[in-house]
Amino acid sequence: MHWNLSILSLYDVEQILEIEKASFKAPWSRTLFLEELACKTASDYVVKLTGSEKHEPVIAYICSRIIGCEMSILRIAVSPKLRNLGISSWLLDECFKMARDKGVTSVFLEVRESNRAAIALYDKQGFISIGKRPAYYPETGEDAVVLMKKLT
């Protein structure tokens, strides 16, 4: 199985919405993704499966913002049937390379305290916990763990 990285486009939104709904308790709407496409500080990418006979389907995506020397990861998800294949690690590594080229020195994100799989991934990627946001997720009242990674 091979995949490649490309910039998120309008044509990817429908496939992203399917992954989004399968991945999050409070999925982003089509409108939010369209607003993301219009955002000047957005740094959004999709991972597409290559070698497909028809078209290259979207199998993962990341939405982030780069402001100055900081990157904030807003969303990252992999298609449920393709998880645990290293796609998210590869996606993060590629984004970190591009972020370094843009002068980014620190990456931040929030993750549900109960999302052990994501926390394990971020730990493996070198993120450290720098705090909590109490009741960050309004649909459940769950706390968010705030993580940071230095890119230098």
What distinguishing features does this structure have?
152 residues; alpha+beta; Aminopeptidase; seven-stranded mixed beta sheet; 4 helices; 7 strands; 38% strand; globular
Helix-strand layout with pairing:
Elements: E1 2-7, H1 13-23, H2 30-38, E2 45-50, E3 58-67, E4 70-78, H3 87-101, E5 106-112, H4 116-124, E6 128-137, E7 142-150
Parallel strand pairs: 4-5
Antiparallel strand pairs: 1-2, 2-3, 3-4, 5-7, 6-7
Summarize the structure in words.
With 152 residues, the protein is α+β, with helices and mostly antiparallel strands. The chain has four helices and seven strands. The chain has one domain: Gcn5-related N-acetyltransferase (GNAT) (Aminopeptidase), CATH 3.40.630. The mean pLDDT is 93. A seven-stranded mixed sheet has the order 1-2-3-4-5-7-6.
Number of domains: 1
Strand content: 35-45%
Roughly what is the average pLDDT, rounded to an integer? 93
Number of strands: 7
Query: Could you estimate the helical fraction of the residues in percent?
Result: 25-40%
Q: What structural class should be given to the helix and strand makeup?
A: alpha+beta
CATH architecture: 3-Layer(aba) Sandwich
How many DSSP helices?
4
Low-confidence stretches: none
* Ends distance: 31 Å
The order of strands across the largest sheet is 1-2-3-4-5-7-6
Largest sheet: 7 strands, mixed
The CATH top-level class label: Alpha Beta
User: Outline, from the CA principal axes?
Assistant: globular
Rounded to the nearest angstrom, the radius of gyration is 15 Å
